[in-house]
Design brief:
With 459 residues, this protein is of the alpha/beta class. 36% of the residues lie in helices and 17% in strands. The strands form four sheets. Strands 1, 2, 3, 4, 5 and 6 form a six-stranded antiparallel sheet that branches. A five-stranded parallel sheet has the order 8-9-12-7-13.
Length: 459
């Protein structure tokens, strides 16, 4: 029985005066750390995941087994309450800490310690308080995703993850192209959280979800008196200062705003509506579109000069149809996810369900697959997901009879490849051999379809 003795908590007023929680095992190695202010990590030249498994004395020059509050509590078994410390980081900065630390015991044996703390900055380092995180999430910067949330075993997606790690090191603009549900925002947040900007805000805007009349003020802010009811309000550019501004459905911006956006990115300055002075910016802009950027430029929906400025780096996300090998991987991941979050236990899926998932064309991509699994959890009556549990459109989906059923010989990949080739042949015939129309029907980019035609020697 693991417990904290109640009398220990009577030795200080309220836990609410502390911001941070750290739990260490009996050796002083960190197993949990919830930190309110990410700027402390910036001072330590570390990331949240860097702490796990490391000893509590690792991150400060002057911290030893003898003066560390955690190590002292582990050695004595007695709590230390309301202790003030000055700790020197590896880069020479000073952080002051106010903490209360308690032993964790199991059958009277000390198996760990828990420390509640609050950090203070000396006067010369007070600027680190400018950004104080308010979100109770792992990356307290408006994000919920990291690169670990890109679930895949497919070589194409593995290559994209490697690109994300490289791109994150720079501040270049990134344009993400992917169909609905392919994970554009996950990629954008992964780039932000791998970058040096991770302790600054990630600001996201779906340009297609804001009325055109409000987009300019939303992006660039307003000055009091510039129009009736206008107040001094920072726009999203200013709110993203030091961090990342993610603009989804960038092609929804009208011509005028595209020009203004181009100017802001090139000059790294903006001016509020009605304002008289320029505001300098230090932000990274990541944009996304669910339509082929080349087509958008050809159709004059996206300015060519803006396209070049936004797409210094372009990442093209494949559809789920293009990475069908990942269906089983994603299915397992989401079953594990919903087992934890729905207080249920599903052990497997019926073979017919898996066959239906491979047969389905997934217009909503990974997001639709996740929703299909959630639907199943709301219908399932045993520990196995059956055909009756999944959405009707997936269960009843049947391709044209001219598409042959997969020959179940060889490896799973060989079966999937044969079936994919049949689907492409069928849609190519329906589109009278027109590549662009076939790609549209299949939910692929023209480049991806051409690649598959070469792969299957269909041209």
């Amino acid at each position: 029985m693991v417990n904290f003795k109640v009398k220990q908590f009577e030795q200080f007023d309220q836990l609410s005066k502390f911001d941070n929680v750290l739990i260490a095992d009996q050796n002083g190695d960190i197993i949990f750390y919830d930190l309110a202010d990410l700027n402390v990590l910036k001072q330590l030249d570390s990331r949240p995941e860097d702490f796990l498994g490391k000893n509590v004395t690792t991150f400060y020059k002057n911290l030893t087994n003898e003066n560390s509050t955690v190590m002292r509590v582990l050695a004595s078994g007695d709590p230390l309450c309301n202790i003030e410390q000055e700790m020197v980081t590896t880069n020479g900065s000073v952080i002051k800490s106010f903490s209360s630390t308690f032993p964790i015991k199991e059958n009277d044996a000390i198996i760990g310690a828990i420390e509640f703390s609050k950090h203070f900055y000396p006067k010369e380092d007070i600027h680190y308080l400018d950004h104080y995180a308010s979100h109770k999430i792992y990356r307290k910067n408006n994000t919920i995703y990291t690169i670990d949330d890109i679930i895949t075993a497919h070589p194409l997606m593995e290559a994209i993850k490697e690109r994300i790690e490289k791109v994150a090191r720079t501040s270049s603009t990134v344009l993400i192209f992917g169909k609905t549900g392919t994970g554009k925002e996950v990629v954008a947040q992964a780039i932000h959280n791998l970058s040096d900007r991770y302790n600054k805000p990630f600001i996201s805007l779906n340009c297609g979800a804001i009325p055109e009349s409000l987009l300019e003020s939303t992006l660039f802010g307003t000055t009091k008196g510039s129009f009736t009811g206008a107040q001094d309000m920072p726009g999203l550019f200013e709110q993203a200062e030091g961090g990342t501004l993610f603009l989804d459905e960038i092609n929804s911006l009208n011509y005028y705003l595209q020009v203004k956006l181009l100017k802001a990115i090139e000059e790294k300055t903006i001016r509020r509506i009605g304002g008289k002075k320029n505001i300098s910016l230090d932000i990274r802009v990541i944009s996304a579109t669910n339509e082929d950027p080349d087509t958008l430029v050809e159709e004059k929906k996206l300015r060519e000069d803006l396209f070049y400025r936004l797409g210094v780096v372009q990442i093209n996300l494949p559809t789920l149809l293009e990475r069908k090998d990942d269906i089983e991987v994603l299915l397992k991941f989401y079953i594990d996810f919903y087992n934890r979050h729905m207080n249920m236990t599903i052990h497997a899926v019926d073979d017919e369900v898996l066959a239906s998932f491979y047969r389905y064309h997934w217009p909503g991509n990974v997001r639709e697959l996740k929703n299909a699994v959630e639907t199943a959890y709301n219908h399932v009556s045993s520990t196995v997901i059956t055909l009756e549990d999944i959405p009707d459109r997936i269960r009843n989906n049947q391709k044209s009879t001219r598409v042959s059923q997969p020959t179940l010989t060889g490896t799973l990949k060989e079966c999937v490849d044969r079936y994919e080739k049949d689907i492409i042949e069928n849609e190519l015939e329906k589109a009278n051999g027109v590549i662009a129309e076939t790609a549209r029907r299949l939910g692929l980019s023209k480049q991806s379809l051409k690649y598959k035609l070469e792969k299957y020697r269909m041209r």
